[in-house]
Write a structure and sequence with these properties.
Layout (H helix, E strand, L loop, with lengths): L15 H5 L9 E2 L6 E4 L1 H23 L5 H28 L3 E3 L8
Antiparallel strand pairs: 1-2, 2-3
Helix pairs in contact: 2-3
The structure holds zinc ion.
Length: 112
């Protein structure tokens, strides 16, 4: 089964871009173009995002604590932190576009 297959109707309706924007199990997800039901990236994507956020956050704290260690760190602290924040949003989306299966949205408010 393809990772771009809709878990509701079984049709291959998702593209990498659409899948990337579907978010993880914490989000509402995106509707399938065929059956209109909401799909999100599954457990693997949700766990990956949580771990990635944790690691990125640890890096930000590390850079912050060592910001005054030397001149290089002092002048590069802000760009490094900004870069990590950008990565925190971009990397999970790229990973979601090419890995992990789609699942049905489990959010209750998605079905109202
Ligand atoms: Zn569908």
């Amino acid at each position: 089964m393809s990772i771009y297959t809709c878990p509701h109707c079984g049709e291959k309706t998702f593209t990498p871009i659409k899948k990337a924007l579907s978010g993880t199990m914490k989000s509402k997800g995106k509707p399938c173009p065929k059956c209109g039901k909401l799909c999100v990236n599954g457990k693997g994507a949700t766990i990956f995002e949580a771990i990635f956020f944790l690691v990125a956050f640890a890096f930000i704290v590390y850079v912050y604590l060592h910001g005054l260690d030397n001149v290089w760190m002092y002048t590069h602290e802000v760009p490094i932190v900004l870069g990590i924040i950008v990565l925190m949003f971009v990397v999970p989306k790229i990973v979601n576009a090419f890995c992990f299966k789609l699942v049905q949205s489990i959010r209750l408010d998605a079905y109202k």
